Amino acid sequence: MRKFLLVLVMFFYAPNLVKGSVVINEISPRTSPEWVELYNSGDESVDLTNWYLVDKQLHKKILTPPDPVQPKTFYIF
Predict the structure, then answer these.
(1) Which residues of 59-77 are buried (b: 16+ CB within 10 A; e: fewer)?
(2) Whether pLDDT at 2 is above 60
(3) Which residues contact 20 (CB under 8 A, 6 or more apart)?
(4) Degrees, nearest 5: CA angle 22-5-35
(5) Looking at beta carbons, which pairs linking 1-7 to residues 24 or more positions away fall under 8 Å?
(6) Confidence label for 39 from pLDDT (cuts 50, 70 and 90)
(7) Alpha helices (H) in 1-77, listed in sequence order
(8) Integer Cα distance of 1 and 9 in angstroms
(9) Contact in structure between 75 and 53 (CB atoms under 8 Å)
(10) What is residue 17's predicted lDDT score, i.e. its pLDDT?
(11) Beta bridge partners of 27
(12) pLDDT above 90 (res 73)
């Protein structure tokens, strides 16, 4: 298995700032490129500005979506 194990850390540092319910829906660590699919299951859009993913070596990957993630939609990073 590849060394990438991604974790969405925003929920751990500021869960009260999250208005929607963005969850990690799928991870593909064995493809090239690797990707993570996030899903907003809430009823409000969620701005992912300043959100990041961290691997087990603590390397940050900043999320840079062009727009907020709309309710009931996916975002692939």
Answers:
(1) eeeebeeeebbeeeeebeb
(2) no
(3) 40, 41, 42, 43, 44, 45, 46, 69, 71
(4) 60
(5) 1/29, 1/30, 2/29, 2/30, 2/34, 3/55, 3/56, 3/57, 4/29, 4/34, 4/55, 4/56, 5/29, 5/55, 5/56, 6/36, 6/53, 6/54, 6/55, 6/61, 7/53, 7/54
(6) very high
(7) 10-13
(8) 22
(9) no
(10) 52
(11) 36
(12) yes
Digit-coded pLDDT (tens) for 3-16 = 444 444 444 444 45
Which amino acid, residue 71? P
pLDDT band at 59 (very low <50, low <70, confident <90, very high): confident
d(CA 77, CA 74): 10
Rg of the chain over CA atoms, in angstroms? 12
pLDDT at 74: 93
CA neighbor of 9 nearest in space, from 33, 36, 32, 29: 36
